[in-house]
Amino acid sequence: MSGQAETATARPRLSRRSLTLNIGLFLVGMHVTVALLTLVWTPYDPTGMTGGRLEAPSWAHWAGTDRLGRDLFTQIMIGSRIALIVGFGAVAIAATIGVTLGVLSAFATRYLDDILAAAFDILIAFPTLLLAMLVVAATESASLFSATLALGIAISAIVARLTRILAKRILSMDYITAARTAGASWPSIVFRHLLPNIWPMLAVNFALQFGLAVIAEASLSYLGLGAPPPNASWGRLLQEAQGTVYTAPFGAIAPGIALVTLVIGMNLLADGLREAGDPTRRGRQ
Q1: pLDDT in tens, 232-285
Q2: Angle at 221 between CA 83 and CA 59, to 5 degrees
Q3: Alpha carbon 127 to chain centroid distance?
Q4: Which residue windows are transmembrane per the record (predicted)?
């Protein structure tokens, strides 16, 4: 009877975890679908003046028009593509730099490990947006590439610190000692034992950093340091709508909703992946 009760109690918990993961997949998948669709079709020309200025949402313009008469829904669709490019690009750069430095730190001598750990902590202490602004300023030109590079470098310290912690934990395991005693090379230990065991936790962190990168890119674009016109970044749309937020509020509401749904979707996806990949957490629940 007790086993049946535990099973009955576990089912709702499993369904809640599945719901979190499924909602996250749906929200992120929706944006991915829209971004891919913009490669072949958009309702209107993103730069074309297809209506009157600041028109309200209608059947012709689902999200209304901006102050130049451009279709807002088309620009928001393009914004999904830009957000995903920056998000995935920044995470890829952060993963390449961060995982490499984190693994090197875990294998380094104590003196070098302490120096790298202190450097990671110092970089993490700076706000991600501030570091990204410094990198963009150093490139002397605001572009989609510079924003992606800046965010990737800014986030890499977070990834490096987590990789170092996870790698040092794995390297202290008995099977790693046995592999080293058997004559396994360091590259073999890294690629056969270390990375496969830390990858699940890194994947969850990458999903969280993706959301951070999307918000930071919107902030950079709002400040004029992100993708320049005619790229329809959500941050730039919000910046352009601030002067008409009282007379045409949907110009700010629509890109804000798009930004929030993508970030929440990625956070829910990360939470679902963590729940699904953590056996100790499942056991407690």
Answers
A1: 899 999 999 998 989 899 999 999 999 999 999 999 999 888 877 654 454 444
A2: 65
A3: 16
A4: 21-44, 82-108, 115-138, 144-163, 202-225, 245-269
Query: Tokens 């937020």 label which residue?
Result: 245
Q: If you write DSSP's letter for every residue of 221-243 in order, what string do you get? A: HHTT-SSPTTS--HHHHHHHHGG
Inform me whether the pLDDT recorded for 52 exceeds 60: yes
